[in-house]
């Protein structure tokens, strides 16, 4: 008897569930559908019994009348066939339609909205004779299906036995004095009672089968931890590759940023940990722009480039921290920092004029 893979301990991911669903692999109980279909047929028969009785009477009378007057040739036989088919359709189609609707609703409630033709496609691996024999004798599902069928046959067979035994000992002798309509009514009522008795165990088996089917479905969908990791990598990208790409992007951004430092009007520092390069050009923006910023090694690199290109370096701890936290590279400074930055730029312009 095959056992489940013990390494499959993780619940199925949404992607795995969607894939299984698209392939038509959904949990549903065929036994519950059978019970609902029989119940639908029983309800439809009970509702339309009067109509069926009238139609049958009409058909019997029609054939009895025609039997004396009609000659059996091809044309008349064809006419009788069409007439019989129409009458049978009028009696049977409403019941069959009602059963179909109940079956569709039952299936919809079990699996939800689903339309796929993949289960109809032939799977040649299922035609393997050896695997078929193994599944027949050693598969757990086969044994469970066999047990379910035996239980269903047993209960369905017991119900008519109980009813018939009761009727034989109490009511069957009364039929000797009954008329034909009374006998017909008795047969219908007894058959109805037998069907109801058989439906109770069928529904119990169907609900148990649905619970087992859903549990088995979840167990079969379970994944190993490696499968979950691989799927997450495919969805989000490999973390190693993403880190490498991020480092490359940061490196490119740093190079571009450091290339803009010589264009700055001033570099405001912390003085050792932070450096922010600022440019004020009214033709480009109404407020000063942050060309570059950095901490620790990058801050040292900004200051080094500033010295090489004679860009003034101004120490202002509160302003340097505020600019570093609140302004991104390429953005204009916020309104609340206008005065502080303007004061620094004014000092620089005054110093340049004096020189």
Automatic annotation (TrEMBL):
Annotated GO CC locations = plasma membrane
Gene Ontology biological process: bacterial-type flagellum assembly; protein secretion
Please name the SUPFAM superfamilies in this protein's record.
EscU C-terminal domain-like
Coiled coil start-end: none
Where do the record's region annotations for Disordered lie?
A: 1-28
Q: How does it sit in the membrane?
A: Multi-pass membrane protein
Q: Which domain of life is it from?
A: Bacteria
Localization: Cell membrane
Q: Give the Basic and acidic residues compositional bias ranges.
A: 1-13
Question: Cross-referenced InterPro entries, in alphabetical order?
Answer: FlhB, T3SS_substrate_exporter, T3SS_substrate_exporter_C
Where it mainly occurs, coarsely classed, is membrane
Keywords noted in UniProt: Bacterial flagellum biogenesis, Bacterial flagellum protein export, Cell membrane, Cell projection, Cilium, Flagellum, Membrane, Protein transport, Transmembrane, Transmembrane helix, Transport
- Locate the transmembrane regions by residue number: 35-52, 88-109, 146-164, 194-213
Q: What family is this?
A: Belongs to the type III secretion exporter family.
Q: Which PANTHER family match?
A: FLAGELLAR BIOSYNTHETIC PROTEIN FLHB (PTHR30531)
Q: So what does this one do?
A: Required for formation of the rod structure in the basal body of the flagellar apparatus. Together with FliI and FliH, may constitute the export apparatus of flagellin.
> What is the name of this protein?
Flagellar biosynthetic protein FlhB
Species of provenance: Desulfonauticus submarinus
């Amino acid at each position: 008897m095959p056992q489940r893979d013990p390494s499959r301990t993780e619940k199925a991911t949404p992607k795995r569930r969607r894939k299984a669903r698209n392939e038509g692999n959904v949990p549903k109980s065929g036994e519950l559908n059978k019970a609902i279909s029989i119940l639908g047929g029983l309800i439809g028969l009970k509702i339309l019994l009067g109509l069926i009785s009238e139609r049958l009477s009409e058909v019997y009378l029609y054939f009895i009348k025609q039997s004396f007057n009609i000659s059996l040739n091809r044309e008349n036989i064809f006419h009788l066939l069409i007439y019989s088919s129409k009458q049978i359709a009028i009696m049977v189609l409403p019941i069959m339609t009602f059963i179909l609707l109940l079956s569709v609703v039952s299936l919809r409630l079990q699996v939800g909205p689903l339309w796929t033709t993949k289960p109809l496609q032939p799977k040649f691996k299922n035609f393997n004779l050896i695997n078929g024999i193994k599944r027949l004798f050693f598969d757990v599902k086969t044994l469970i299906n066999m047990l379910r069928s035996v239980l269903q046959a047993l209960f369905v067979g017991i119900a008519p036995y109980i009813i018939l035994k009761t009727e034989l000992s109490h009511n069957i002798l009364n039929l000797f004095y009954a008329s034909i309509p009374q006998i017909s009514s008795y047969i219908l009522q007894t058959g109805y009672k037998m069907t109801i008795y058989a439906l109770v165990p069928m529904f119990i088996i169907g609900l148990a089968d649905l619970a087992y089917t859903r549990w088995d479905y979840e167990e079969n969908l379970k994944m190993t931890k490696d499968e979950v990791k691989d799927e997450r990598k495919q969805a989000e990208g490999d973390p190693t590759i993403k880190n490498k790409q991020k480092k490359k992007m940061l490196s490119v951004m740093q190079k571009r940023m450091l290339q803009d430092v010589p264009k700055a009007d001033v570099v405001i520092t912390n003085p050792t940990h932070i450096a922010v390069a600022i440019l004020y050009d009214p033709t480009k923006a109404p407020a000063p722009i942050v060309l570059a910023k950095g901490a620790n090694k990058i801050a040292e690199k900004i200051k080094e480039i500033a010295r090489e290109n004679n860009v003034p370096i101004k120490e202002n701890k509160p302003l340097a921290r505020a600019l570093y936290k609140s302004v991104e590279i390429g953005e204009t400074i916020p309104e609340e920092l206008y005065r502080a930055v303007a004061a620094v730029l004014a000092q620089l312009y005054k110093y340049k004029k004096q020189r």
